[in-house]
Specification:
The protein is of the alpha+beta class. It is built from 10 helices and 7 strands. 52% of the residues lie in helices and 15% in strands. Strands 1, 2, 3, 4, 5, 6 and 7 form a 7-stranded mixed β-sheet that branches. Helix 5 runs antiparallel to helix 9.
């Protein structure tokens, strides 16, 4: 069954988002379970909901403007070498000028937390997207998977903005790494939905090969679920990351969940063949969406960064 993502997202933002626990506030596992369930319902829905939830957490952590109930927030923090978004302070306040790529929810978001260059440093700003000085650039999002995430580029032409935290605060805060695992919870939820197709097929009449793939998928998703649950408990016990394990924890959990989700996609396809990918529109779209969403991980680059951190640990296991 297909859903109207925009309407469902608005309904969730108005009726449910305010009840989502903040990361590190004692109920992080419930937060991630809620995001996983939204992603299991629809991958794009989960991705946009996670962006809104992350923005609310950032605003709380960095003492930003208080969000209003019906605002839909995004976090637009990708910073490739080009293009560059610049922030300049004038008598009229801070203004943003330039192009920002990878803006998920470019048309549906009413507000966004956007990183921009202030000199040679990056700083986060809250931007009201309903003003005339910012607009999505047409024909900058050609994805098949995650097409509905509307993650094209946005142009800013002197748009008014409010600073959120000091320069560098966005990535230096403890919550940065907590939030990185929130993304993995969405990968997990979407992977569970992919696995549902195999589960239904096996229940209606499985063979040894199909059951073997289902068993492997169950093991992979079980490992991912356990990693998320353990990480949530660790974050709740040390929300300020005083033990300095936040970055390693996030990279380990993201690697586990990414591997599990990738194995799930592969094994469901091998178990069931091309049939569901060609005849089941919802399953086919979900596989396409998750395949693209997982590339929010940087694969071997992230593993290399994790390995570099682990090499410095005396007792990493």
């Amino acid at each position: 069954m297909t859903i109207d993502i925009g309407s469902r997202l608005r309904q969730w933002v108005v009726d449910e988002a305010a009840d989502l626990p903040l990361p590190g506030a004692g109920n992080t596992d419930a937060r991630w379970q809620a995001l996983a369930m939204l992603s299991r319902e629809n991958t794009v829905l989960g991705r946009l909901a996670e962006g809104h939830a992350d923005a609310i957490a950032i605003l709380a952590e960095l003492d930003g403007p208080k969000p209003e109930r019906e605002q839909i927030w995004g976090v637009w923090a990708a910073e490739p070498p080009t293009p560059v978004l610049q922030a300049v302070q004038s008598q009229g306040g801070w203004k943003l000028t330039g192009v920002k790529p990878w803006c998920s929810g470019a048309h549906i978001c009413t507000d966004a937390l956007v990183t921009a260059k202030v000199g040679d440093r990056s700083q986060m700003f809250a931007v009201d997207l309903t003003q005339n000085w910012c607009a999505p650039i047409p024909h900058t999002w050609h994805a098949v998977g995650m097409a509905g995430s509307d993650s094209g580029s946005v142009r800013f032409d002197g748009a008014s903005a409010v600073p959120v935290g000091e320069a560098g605060a966005y990535i230096e805060r403890p919550g940065f790494w907590h939030g990185a695992i929130g993304v993995a919870s969405c990968w997990f939820g979407s992977a569970c939905a992919v696995a549902d197709t195999l589960h239904v097929a096996a229940r209606s009449g499985g063979d040894a090969h199909k059951n073997a793939h289902l068993g492997a998928v169950a093991a992979a998703l079980g490992a991912a679920s356990s990693a998320l649950t353990t990480a949530a408990a660790e974050i709740d016990s040390d929300p300020m990351d005083s033990d300095g394990q936040g970055r390693i924890r996030a990279r380990v959990v993201r690697a586990i969940v990414e591997s599990s989700a990738s194995e799930c996609i592969d094994r469901v396809g091998r178990a069931l063949g091309a049939g569901p990918l060609c005849a089941d529109a919802v399953h086919a779209q979900r596989v396409a969406d998750l395949s693209v969403y997982l590339r929010q991980s940087h694969a071997e680059r992230d593993l290399a960064a994790l390995g570099e951190d682990i090499a410095k640990e005396d007792y990493p296991w």
